[in-house]
Specification:
Layout (H helix, E strand, L loop, with lengths): L2 E3 L1 H7 L2 H16 L9 E6 L3 E9 L4 E8 L11 E8 L6 E6 L1 H19 L6 E5 L3 H10 L7 E5 L3 H11 L2 E2 L2 H5 L4 E4 L18 E4 L12 H4 L2 E4 L2 H7 L1 H6 L3 E4 H5 L11 E4 L4 H20 L1
Parallel strand pairs: 1-6, 7-8, 7-10, 8-9, 10-11, 11-14, 12-13, 12-14
Antiparallel strand pairs: 2-3, 3-4, 4-5, 5-6
Helix pairs in contact: 2-3, 2-11, 3-4, 3-11
Length: 302
């Protein structure tokens, strides 16, 4: 019987520590060439407003496909900007195993990947976190990054001050102006749908680490050329060169894929200012879905 797992059930089963480790292993396998997946096929329904992404992937122990809708116009409406479903199959027989609501999976795996990268790249004594954006990814990154670093100060900025204020009150953070939020911060997250750069490289302290997860279109940007001139790590070379305006328009040099660092193929750069540009790839979703499915199956079998 095909199992259906809704968001409430997934929230009960998905834990940050195991998810971060799973993302590290999945990306290491991807960069070793042990994952079969095309770059996401993104259908533009209405430019700037409505998109549908198709994301299949096959690994040694997991196979499936994700359909994700990206509707940036939903922001502030009470309907999430990203909604998705995952269909999971057995790799040996091809039999369908489960259908999973993937909104929460998308939210958590994105932040978990950033956390895995931050564990390798951010200074061990990082204590100031700046969040540019105050939506679901800002909150998810706060939870995930707190698993790998001890932050004493949390700063938040949003284009909508009321949203930043609400986030700050909920999480004990401090509202800040854009430049003030970034200056002196050890770890910075950009999680916006900016069309033009909002983060200037001149604001970054030497040795800072940036997780850039927003603006997922080839003509949108969050970071300026100065920021992108730092040591750049990506989730997938092929994907960012097709999907990330930050990488495409800056013509930045890619130092490594995250999976190459996780696998030990490339050494993590020490004491350098680093940028992690994440567009999100299918194996992250499929590996997370398998993690959730296995946890649910263990409970059912008890």
């Amino acid at each position: 019987m095909v199992l259906y797992l809704d968001e409430e059930r997934i929230r009960e089963l998905l834990q940050w520590d195991r998810l971060i480790s799973t993302m590290e292993n999945a990306l290491a396998a991807f960069s070793r060439g042990r994952v079969l997946q095309p770059v996401r096929n993104m259908l533009t329904i209405e430019e700037g407003k409505q998109y549908l992404g198709i994301m299949p992937a096959v690994a040694d122990d997991a196979m499936g496909a994700k359909l994700v809708s990206f509707y940036p116009g939903n922001a502030g409406s009470g309907v999430a900007t990203h909604l998705a479903m995952i269909l999971l199959f057995r790799t040996d027989t091809g039999e369908p195993l489960a259908v999973l609501d993937a909104r929460l999976i998308t939210e958590m795996r994105t932040a978990a990947v950033s956390a895995a990268v931050t564990k390798y790249l951010a200074a061990s004594d990082s204590h100031i976190l700046a969040l540019l954006g105050s939506g679901v990814q800002a909150e998810a990154h706060l939870h995930a990054l707190s698993q790998v670093r001890n932050f004493e100060e949390i700063r938040v900025w949003s284009r909508t001050p009321a949203h930043a204020e609400r986030f700050a009150e909920k999480h004990g953070a401090r509202m800040a102006a854009l430049e003030a939020a970034v200056r002196g911060a050890d770890v910075i997250v950009t999680a916006t749908n900016a069309i033009e750069p909002i983060l200037k490289g001149a604001w970054l302290k030497p040795g800072a680490h940036v997780n850039a997860v927003g603006s997922p279109r080839p003509n949108w940007r969050e970071l300026d050329d100065t920021a992108m001139a730092n040591t750049l790590i990506v989730d997938s070379r092929e994907a960012v060169l097709r999907e990330s305006g930050d990488v495409i328009l800056s013509k930045a040099t890619i130092f490594a894929e995250a999976g190459e660092i996780f696998a030990g193929v490339k050494e993590a750069p020490a004491a350098m200012t680093t940028i992690f540009k994440s567009v999100g790839i299918a194996i992250e979703d499929i590996a997370t879905a398998k993690l959730v499915y296995d946890a649910a199956s263990r409970e059912v079998s008890v």
